[in-house]
């Protein structure tokens, strides 16, 4: 090996792969902004986010729901979000009675309602239990969003929208899925803040119009120097 050369498989090589994939990933900002606004609109209206994944993707799914039920950065109301793998009793009972492919689909059937969102995370985009969950969700009227590895993969076309991470190894895909989770939370909170500002501005405007109406009902009041009450 050349003196000073980085051996294959080293930590530095891993960082280089992540750096290159992140540069390509930056182009997905618009989609995550759209998802954040849509999720804020739906959850504010009483809808729920369901999230599912296997293995490391299950951990990412639970990370996302924790940010919504708890908070991401600033304090805000709690929003309904469920990581479907986290109910171990239901998951294992369904797997035992109906098979592993049904573990998420049956929970979608139980918890999902029209206008809810199902988000699926998969580095391969080919997990059978996520594909059956997507099919069930779309039949029930849920929006289905997916975070996957490189396209093409079966989960992307089975979803209403998909962010396919262009990275050669699963570890890098998972790392960028975490970036996507945080970007989604950032966009979600920004959309909520913008809505709060809009509502506050509307309320302030209503008060001003109401005051104008109350003090100017077609005749000048006694305190109005231009009215009858202000003349000598």
From TrEMBL:
Region (Disordered): 213-232
CDD domains xref list: SIS_GmhA
Entry coiled-coil feature ranges: none
Comp. bias intervals (Gly residues): 214-232
SIS domain location: 39-198
Name used for this protein in its record: SIS domain-containing protein
